Structure formats: structure tokens, C-alpha cells
Amino acid sequence: MLLLIAALGCPDAPKDAAPLGSEPGEAGRRKPGRPGKGGPRPPHGGPAAPLPADPATFTAGGSGGPNILWVTLDTVSAEHLAPWGGRVPLPTLEGLGAVRVKQAFSNFPETALSHWSMFTGVLPEVHGNVGAQGSSRYSGPSMAEIANARGYATGAFIGGMTLRDAWCGLSRGFDLYNDAMIPPREVQVGAPQVISAVNTWISAQKGPWFAFVHLFDAHVPYAPANGARFDGDYAGTLDGKEASLAPYRDHGAAIDPRDLAHVEALYDAEIAELDAALSPLFRQLHGDEIVIVTADHGESFAHDYLFNHRAVLWDDVLHVPLYVKAPGLKPQSVDGMLSLLDLAPTVVDLAGWGATAPFQGQSRVPLLRGLGGGATSFWARTDPWVPLLPGEPGARFAERTPTAKRIREADGSACAYDLAADPEELRGGCDIPGVDAAWEGYNAAITAMAPYQRAEGPTRVKDRLTPTELLEGLGYVDHAAKKE
Ligand SMILES: [Zn+2]
Fold first, then answer.
1. Residues 481, 484: Cα–Cα separation, whole Å
2. 111: CA distance to ligand 1 center in Å?
């Protein structure tokens, strides 16, 4: 039963628990991924191997450079963290000696496309429905491909099933894409084991390396070792497991505020433990690496949208932590805004690579140096491919500036939020002018990337799948588990 509960919690399930959309990808024919470079997959109905970047779309700009450690803390919302005004202390991350970026935001509230976007510097939608396609349509390079072309050893160490290579094709450019630590029929492996693997790999490298570390601990289920850390006097019965949370997340059951506060405390305790787990990873650094620590998206505990993230564009879902450490950068906190779209060109700049690629983000090195130069706005989008049931809203779009946000619904209606006066985004003014210009600009930006998109192949998500159907298709649920 534990396996089933954990598994059901993993896909970024929408509110009614039925559509699983693009995040986990297609069910029914693919098996969990395997370690190793993204080579050919099993011939029996499996997806084709992800195509590498077209060499015509980038130049590596030379060879070698600083070692790079890139860590994502899946589902960690900045607003829960003490340096961002929340309650979770981060002694390990704060002790890293990095630049803390106070206003960093995700462009897409789901795992696979958020990672694709941060590793390529192009809008998530440019990649297409990676879950259905098995990989990205984008023919430009990922950071791993640029690093690989420069002679780096490239390794990825995956903690959660939503980044299994078979589901998203993110292995492009990685010599090693280790998603095999996740036990069969489970959805995640804890940070200590992932970090042990990456440390072993780093210590074996003789030349420059690029290591990607994906830590899934904060994602549902919220199961900290010390659940009483932030809520020691809770006398209720709710816990952070899938079975407890599903009625509120998926079926709209009314939750007692005291129970909600407890679940939020469990989430916070898990993030605190994740920070502590990072110590062995940082201890083996030499100080001359580039280190990125961020999250792919946050988590919602408000707006009648609980324990989830994939269908909304509120700041608790978009606002993510970001630490950047690099030679020559002075540890400080900077307030300018950026989106994860800017990370790839920023790291290329920090590394002095001189690499070129069709980035849609831009380098924020001046911001990291405390010289200003933050973004004046960015765009975010929810999954435009997920099939909908009657009455469900379609994909949302948002444009955010440092002080305001406009959210456009699929029917064209829109609301604006003054984030200074209304930081919780509870009092939107609707029927506003101007948002269509942002929407048109966004669509023009997608269209402009057509030269860098491969033809859309056959997709495999044909119908909405229940979580159980999805997991059955992937081989995660056996008959014994189904009976429970
Ligand atoms: Zn995620």
C-alpha cells in the first residue's frame, strides 16, 4: 500500500485526480528509464532515443572551463524559506557563500518542462509536449550538450520519477543519466542516496565536469523524519501522505484550517531536512566551481488549490529559491528579478564559455554582481496540452513584473494583481486592458522559435488517465497493491 500511496502522489496530479497531462508522460507502453547515455531504447513500443541538438544551432566556444554543480530542489517554494520571509531556516544553503537571488521565478509549474527550459534558456512551450513525445522538439542545445561539446564529463543524478529519461528525454548531452536509483514501483529516492552517488562520480573525474542533481524530497508525500518540528502540539489525524491529502487536493473536500496548517508544517519540515542533507554535497567542493541551487516550481497551500502546483500561476508556485556561487561573485542578497529562462545564458556567461545558442533568456551576471539588470517582466504558462473535462479551465498564462501580475484564462478573460498591496494575490482587478498584448507577444516569441523546432512527431497521450491507470501502464501497480 505504501508504494501505491507514494506513487499516486508523484505525478503532478490536477485537482480532480484524473488528467495527468504532460508531466508524467504517456502510460501504457513505456517502462521506467535506465542509467546511461540517452541511447536507443527498447524496441517494443518504447519511445525513440532523444535526438541530440543540431550542431548548426550552437557553438561551444572552445573547450574546458570551471566545474559546474547544478542542483534542483523539486517543489520548493521560496515563500516558505526563512531568507525569503518564511520559517524554514537554511543553514546549509546560507553557508554556501553564494549570491541569494530574492526574486527568481519559474516559467512553468511542472517538473519536466521547467527543467528543459532552465537547461536551454528557451520558453517551455518551445519544447512541445515532452511527456507525450518522449523528449523535446527543440533542436538547440541544452547546457549538458554545450558542456559535453567542450569536453566536460556530464552526469545527472535523478531523485524523482517525473525526470525519468523515458518520460522526458532530458538525458540529451549527459554521459551518465542515472535515474535508476529510484526503486522499481516507487516514485523517489531520498537526497542522501542521490548525493552519495553524485559525490562518488565527482571524485572520479579527472577533467572538467557538469553535475546535475535532482532532489525530490519536498514533493508529495510530505514525510519528514521529524514531523513535529514546526507543529509539535498538533492533535489531529491528518498526515502528509497521499491518502490523507487526496480528498482535499483532488476532490475539493473542505479542510479544517488547523489541519491545513499541520500539513504545511510537514512540508516545511521536509524542506529543513533537505537543507541539512545538502551538507555532504557542499563539503566536497573546492570553492572554484560554479554552483546553482534552485527549484523547478513551488507548491500551493492556498487559493483553494492545495498540495499541488501544476494548474496555477500564483507566486507560491512560481517563486523559487535561487543561490548562485561562482569565482568572483561576492556573497550577497540581490533583489532584481529573473526567471529560470535566464539561468542557462547566465551560467554560460559566468563560465566564460563564449558559447552561442538561440537563448530566449539573457545573462543576469550584472544582477548577481549587485549592479542591477534584473528582468522587467517574464512569462509563465500552465500545460497547454492536457485534455480537459467539461467545465475545467484551460491553460493559463501570466505576465509578471516586479510589482504586478496579470493572469489570462483560456477564454481570454484576465485579472491583474498589485503585488505590493496584495502579495497574496487575493484581490485581483479583472476586465483589464493590455493583457492581450502580452499574450500576443508570448505567442510571437513561440512562433519565432519555429526554425529551432523539429517536426512534431506522433504523440502518445491520447486520453486522460487516472493516476492508477497511469501507474498500471508504467508497471508500478501490481495486483496486490491494487487491492489495497
Ligand atoms: Zn517538479
1. 5
2. 3
3-class state of residue 209 by DSSP: strand
Quickly state the pLDDT bin for 31 (edges 50, 70, 90).
very low
Alpha-carbon gap, residue 29 to 235, rounded angstroms: 45
DSSP 59: B
Tell me the CATH architecture of domain 2-377. 3-Layer(aba) Sandwich (3.40)
Residue 1 grid coordinates: 500500500
CA of 64 to the centre of ligand 1 (A): 31
The backbone torsions φ and ψ at residue 198, rounded to the nearest 5 degrees and listed phi first, read: -70, -35
Q: What is the DSSP string of 137-180?
A: -B-S--HHHHHHHTT-EEEEEE-BGGG-HHHH-TTTT-SEEE--
How far apart are the CA of 239 and the centre of ligand 1, in A?
Answer: 21
Q: How far is the CA of 168 from the centre of ligand 1 (A)?
A: 12
Strand partners, 72: 214, 294
Q: How many residues appear in the chain? A: 484
List of residues 6+ apart from 302 with CB closer than 8 A: 314, 316, 424
Q: Dump pLDDT digits (tens) for 385-415.
A: 987 777 778 899 999 999 999 999 998 889 9
Distance 159 CA to ligand 1 centre (A): 11
- Which residue ranges make up each domain of the chain? 2-377
pLDDT in tens, 280-335: 999 999 999 999 999 999 999 999 888 899 889 999 999 999 999 999 999 999 99
Q: How far is the CA of 233 from the centre of ligand 1 (A)?
A: 31
- What are the tens digits of pLDDT across the range 185-205? 888 999 999 999 999 999 999
Residue 79 Cα to ligand 1 midpoint, Å, equals 16
